[in-house]
């Protein structure tokens, strides 16, 4: 199989069931999900395999689910095939958020990205995930999408935030708090 096809040389690309311009909102949405998946891979390649064994296993699942999200976003028209993203995927993310949040101390102020190298990588994933979410919102204004994709991305960014804090905690590095912030979060009950 050849990698190059020359079919995109005029600025269009194939999606599932049709062709669109390469800067189409659909391509922007699934392309940003793909970019996020690359950053998840970079984070995985950088994490200590012993200290972060649990997170690495979860991130492998997330990478496959991000492919599912991209696949759903690449559908030219609904109904061409069944959607892959399901509400159950988001429920699993919520369980992970609760688990990793249980590892961390209470926060009361906004947290700045950074701390340990591992935490910094999770914050990059979080912010790229938020951008992907924004691109999907833009697409959903004009095209029908599979709603669980948007919910999943919203929750996934929360998971990356929680993983970033858990990584700092595991490394013995305190979160860096925004100094000008008042107390904006409630303590865990």
From TrEMBL:
Keywords, ordered alphabetically: Transferase
Protein name: Cob(I)yrinic acid a,c-diamide adenosyltransferase
Class of this enzyme: transferase
Species of origin: Paenibacillus mesotrionivorans
E.C. number: 2.5.1.17
